[in-house]
Amino acid sequence: MTQTPAQTAPQMPAQTAVKLADYQPYSHVLDRVALTFHLSPQATRVQARLHLAPNPARGSGLDLRLDGENLVLIALAVDGQRLELQPDATGLTIPAHLLPDAPFVLETEVEIAPEGNTALEGLYMSGGMYCTQCEAEGFRKITFYPDRPDVMARFHVRIESDMPVLLSNGNPVAAGPGWAEWDDPWPKPAYLFALVAGDLVAHSDRFTTQSGRDVALNIWVRKGDEGFCAYAMDSLIRSMRWDETAYGREYDLDVFNIVAVDDFNMGAMENKGLNIFNSKYVLASPETATDEDFARIEAIIAHEYFHNWTGNRITCRDWFQLCLKEGLTVFRDQQFSGDMRSHAVKRIEDVLMLRGRQFREDGGPLAHPVRPDAYVEINNFYTATIYEKGAEVIGMLKRLVGDAGYKAALDLYFDRHDGAAATIEDWLQVFEDATGRDLTQFKRWYTEAGTPQVSVRDDWADGVYTLTLAQTLPATPGQPHKGLKVIPVAVGLLNPNGDEVVPTTVLELTEAQQSFRFSGLAARPVPSILRGFSAPVVLNRAVSADERAFLLAHDTDPFNKWEAGRALAKEVMAHMITDAAPVSRNWLAALARVALDHGLDPAFRALALRLPGEDDMAATLAAAGHVPDPVAVHAARQALADAVAAELAPVLPGLIAGMATPGPFSPDAAQAGRRALRNAALALLTRRDGGAAARAAFAAADNMTDSLAALVALLEIGAGAPELAAFEARWQADRLVMDKWFMLQVLYAAPQDLAAVVRRLTARPDFDWKNPNRFRAVIGALSANHAGFHHADGAAYDLLADWLLRLDPKNPQTAARMSTAFETWPRYDADRQALIRRALQRILTAPGLSRDLGEMAARMAAG
Ligand SMILES: [Zn+2]
Q1: What's the DSSP call for residue 210?
Q2: 200 alpha carbon to ligand 1 midpoint, in Å?
Q3: Alpha helical stretches, state H, 649-703
Q4: What is the pLDDT of residue 663?
Q5: Can you say whether the dihedral through the CA atoms of 809, 813, 814, 816 is positive or negative?
Q6: Cα of 264 to ligand 1 centre, how many Å?
Q7: How many Cα neighbours within 13 Å face the side chain of 858?
Q8: What is the pLDDT of residue 413?
Q9: Is 81 helix (H, G, I), strand (E, B) or coil?
Q10: How far is the CA of 325 from the centre of ligand 1 (A)?
Q11: Is the pLDDT of residue 8 over 80?
Q12: What was the pLDDT predicted at 16?
């Protein structure tokens, strides 16, 4: 059957878009806030005192509009005078005639029920503790308030509860039995508010800032977890030191608290002085966490800490400017991870992620600019485009203005906007003022969606080498006309003997087509283009396999060295799929040389051995005009892995032995790199020896990295059932490790078994689908099993739709995020398209659909 179902107009819930063009400053200024919480699972009382005045920027005589959702209003007073007003579904309006035309105090008392809050936005309960998540718009579920980032106020918080540990933002000022008070001297928007109350224990340390402030550091966890905090604390201390030396920014409170929470929609949240983390990104030990987990924890701790300046001290004027804090803070955490580990390896990993998630988003129905100009539900815009492309744009800016220009611009940014809510215009202005550069054209990177394509021609005549670069901009739905971008293209030239004759030079492509000449060369050089992935673009250039192999062997730029091997692997795989070509002998030989090159970082060699993923390969085929067949892609990748294993078979045991890591476990980059290469070799050997070495490695493993790698190696060849059972028996009480156990079975299920495997896993009593980590581990992993998700029977599509509809009423934010598995539907054949569209239609027509999931499904269905 190849017919798409009849298109009927979806019955959408009413969706009103918020538009950037409609921005107005708030009607009032809010200077101080005093909050008192009487905590109770079913009936928490929140008293708020807001010190308000008419905003001179808006004039007087305006109504006061406060956001508020799911709040029971108990009392309301202005300057002590009680008012009898009824809130509506989204807030409360106090008419201007009831307000003084001068500073006044507004008092409210509301009742909320944190125990019933399964959306995990606002004040909710997780594992018996109270906690909050207010970004983006959760504070309106706590009290009536102008819940927008440009309203910044100083908060004083009193918590009354019988919980032993009571935390909020800022510094602790007073406490007694059953109560505590916190005062935050720094003005902040409500999305940075946090409160935690629970029976917690702390892993503590201290830090002295460069100006001599003594800061108490605490990581608060449930009893029994305190032994799993050392790496997070170490990462925090290194982050604090790094921000002082790299950006001249130091911490500004007496205490920095982190709390680990099991039920959390996001990774972590940078609330001022009280960061709340998904426990997955705090808790780690060598026995329970992999090297990737350690690296993630280090990066996320750093990210949230760096927000103290880029996000908290300087925040966003409105949510359209989200990339102002997120793009910049991701860029900073990438710099930090590079400094702590390896810049080359970090760059490759970041680009893999960018291409895997952001390029996919940018080329599909969910494409949107780094700074969108409209949204229905802001929670749907915490995307790879805002975060990862937002960071790439800053990397390009830095490349264009140079390190000194970047530093001058950042210093000016911190001086000029500290304590304020800023915009992308403000951000670009500091670069213009500090460097004298006109960024009018550059700004299009923020305002236009889509991944530019850069094509390259080269020419050699009379001793002059000419590179001609041209840019094209793919159409994006709703955005037919786009302007030319400023694209920094870093280029180096190599002699035919492999010597570099022109070191890395940044060419600025600003026109539709431009030529760049290099003279004084003795022979036609081999170009190495887009070094370090200097711009988030797709490079189109016909390159022979020989030239790629040459760059893989000789390029001095580690990114492009890896890229040459990657491109070769993709070409080999594409030929296997489209022309049934055999695996290229030359590619195998080149790959083997890199794998065995002891002059290279083992982590780099492990990355070189990692084959392109199936989703990546499907995207590559689609970009080349083919309709990817998921079955063929899966088969080709298996065949390729078998061929690599056969090629390297004689050297694998030596490689594994040579990469041993004697001595105690350390999660540092050097040891992690050796484990990565050793385990890559083990996975290949497993394809040759029926799993004997992997079974032995699993039995002998004394850390999670090795244990999991051996298990994955077995699952990849369809073995590993006894090891899965042993893993479960050992770890069934550890919720984070069991998330891995669940996810592995989804990722490595045989394609035809995927739906059945997921049905079996979701029927287990320990499949707690209301816990976002567990839901992500199973339902969120479905589409990562590419051939299984896209199995022709459509069973996995239906299963995903069923679960999204089940989760949506409880947790719309996570349901909406997981729905992006469907975003690639235009790539596939008509039968699969019809099946996915049917699933999307079923979601769209479901009664009571949330704004979150409704917006996502509508955008995908329209794509
Ligand atoms: Zn962030």
Answers
A1: T
A2: 25
A3: 652-658, 669-689, 692-700
A4: 92
A5: positive
A6: 15
A7: 20
A8: 98
A9: strand
A10: 7
A11: no
A12: 86
The residues carrying an active-site annotation are: 304
> Which amino acid is present at 102?
A
Tokens 């530093």 sit at which residue?
Answer: 407
- CA dist list (Å): 547 to 23, 557, 581, 767, 801: 53, 15, 20, 51, 46
Q: Strand 315-316 to strand 421-422: parallel, antiparallel, or no bridges (unpaired)? A: parallel
Residue type, 681: A
Tokens of 838: 């049917």
For Cα atoms 481, 487, 489, give the angle at the middle one, nearest 5 degrees: 150
> What torsion do the CA atoms of 578, 582, 586, 591 make, to the nearest 10 degrees?
80
Centre of ligand 1 to C-alpha 278, Å, is 13
How is the beta sheet containing 526-529 ordered, strand by strand? Answer: 500-509, 487-494, 526-529
Residues 601-621 have pLDDT tens digits of: 999 999 999 999 999 999 999
Length of the chain: 863
Cα distance between residue 732 and residue 738, in whole Å: 6
Are the CB atoms for 397 and 437 separated by under 8 Å? no
Structure tokens at 17: 């878009």
Alpha helices (H) along 141-290? 230-247
- In terms of Cα–Cα distance, which of 743, 758, 786 is closest to 638? 786
Residue % of the chain over a pLDDT of 90: 97
- Please write down the HEC assignment for all residues of 257-304: EEEEECCCCCCEECCCCEEEEEHHHCCCCCCCCCHHHHHHHHHHHHHH
- By the 10 Å C-beta count (0-12 exposed, 13-18 middle, 19+ buried), 176 is classed as exposed
Number of CB atoms found within 10 A of residue 185's CB:
12
SS (H, E, C) 737-778: HHHHHHHHHHHCCCHHHHHHHHHHHHCCCCCCCCCHHHHHHH
Distance 266 CA to ligand 1 centre (A): 10
